[in-house]
Amino acid sequence: MKAILIGLLSSVFFAVTFILNRSMELSGGSWLWSSSLRYFFMVPFLVGIVLVRGNLKGLFLNMRLNPMKWVVWSTVGFGLFYGPLTFAAASGPGWLVAGTWQFTIIAGLLVVPFFYETIETSLGTKKIRKKIPLKGLIFSLIIFLGIILIQVQEASGGVGIEVFLLGMLPVIIAAFAYPLGNRKMMEHCQGEIDTFQRVLGMTIASMPLWVILAGVGVVKVGMPSQEQIFQSFIVSLSSGVIATILFFFATEMVKGDQQKLAAVEATQASEIIFVILGEIVLLNLPLPSFHSFIGLFMIITGMVLHSLFSNRRKALKSIHTKIKAL
Predict the structure, then answer these.
(1) The model's pTM
(2) Domain ranges of the chain
(3) Which of 34, 150, 168, 174 could bridge 84 with an S-S bond, Cβ 3.0-4.6 Å?
(4) What is the mean pLDDT of each run of 10 residues along the chain (326 residues)?
């Protein structure tokens, strides 16, 4: 339950991303700068945190052991996540991007077969491919159906198919890249470094991509405006540092259980709730429709079922262990 609550808290800070990214695009800022500036600003924050904790040297030693893995999976987990997300903000409204991003709930389960677990057999240890947790997938589908209901209701107001596709497809790529890159790095680090070190390491390892995007930005649109720099700074602090560390900390707590990992990742569905609330308060938008409220209820129900099921499994496992001990 603690990991679920931390995941929910992270989604509050993640919600800032969707609102401000759309705001930057509407004011004429390029997605090339929106994406790269966030990670440029994250570096000093994270270096300061890791340095104060006395773990900077340990991180660099770990990164030197296998730099290619760090670069590849950090580029997937951060680059193929945030680049498409900011690109989508230029092509569609914030609610469309925030809602479609919740596909990560399903994606987090579908990437499970990319990982292996070691089991003991009569012939010794053996690696087997992990299986998609079907019950978790059912609960995730409840959440996703709620999101679809909100999307259909909102889209009925009139969104062109081209805008819909350009806003949706990049986010689906991001939805797969984020859990895949995150889990691959957890698998590689094997608990040898903490959450703060891992976020800093992934930020540094993905930096070649951000430098390239910034260079393209200089050539195509020139330097960013002061307003975009300031808003990117807020996104970096809120989403890039606070939300990312909270979310990674929550996933680190349950990294050995794919069902619980899926439950933590499912908490990100609440982002759309916080985005809607933020738009109502900050942008004076009207309350969601009745159908949208039904969708929100389905999202919350799915999240509760995820939490209850993951805790039920933990309780049953504990009982089974005690019985065997007797």
Answers:
(1) 0.77
(2) 2-325
(3) 174
(4) 84 85 80 92 92 92 92 95 87 72 79 71 68 74 79 59 69 90 87 87 96 96 91 89 85 74 74 78 71 79 70 50 38
